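Lab notebook, bench 4. The sequencing result for the construct came back, and we need a structural model before the next group meeting so we can plan mutations. Quick request posted to the team channel:

Model the 3D structure of this chain.
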Amino acid sequence: MVAHQNRFGKDSENIKAWTAVLSEVADLKGHHIHTGFEIDHIKEIVDKVHAKITPKPLLSGDDSVGLDHHTENVKSLLDDTDHSVCMLGIYGLGGIGKTELAKALYNKIVHQFEAASFLANVREKSNKINGLGELQKTLLSEMFERPETELGSTSKGIYEIKHKLGKKKVLLVLDMLMR
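Done. Here's the predicted structure in token form:
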């Protein structure tokens, strides 16, 4: 706080606000751990907090003009379904904006899901050596916003995906070039 006071001045609004908040936090009562290790309780808390955080939209450099009408049309198709699993395919000639439409739709509905991922160039990546394994690692790391973990095999990846995502509401977009 001394460094911040020197930077902003002791009477600045920021310093007053920070001091008030820190004083309030200092008065909060803690939770005593009587059994087990502290790290296990920390992991449990982190998992509970992470489960309540919604996935982030895709970072997009520009907001494409004229997609709102189209995304609303496609979104209405998804809203009309009462299935637990819904699949939507967007196909057409190359260069007409299918990926941009998919990204815009993803950004519009991603907050409704517990986990989400937009995997680009799926066909190209899956044809490479260990491509499916790499796609699995990308999927799991994006869904849980954690560093990639080593899976060892695609079978282990399938197990991990089922185990971690089986009971969650998930949005998965596979963007691939059709031939």
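DSSP finds eight helices and two strands in the chain.
Will bring this to the meeting.
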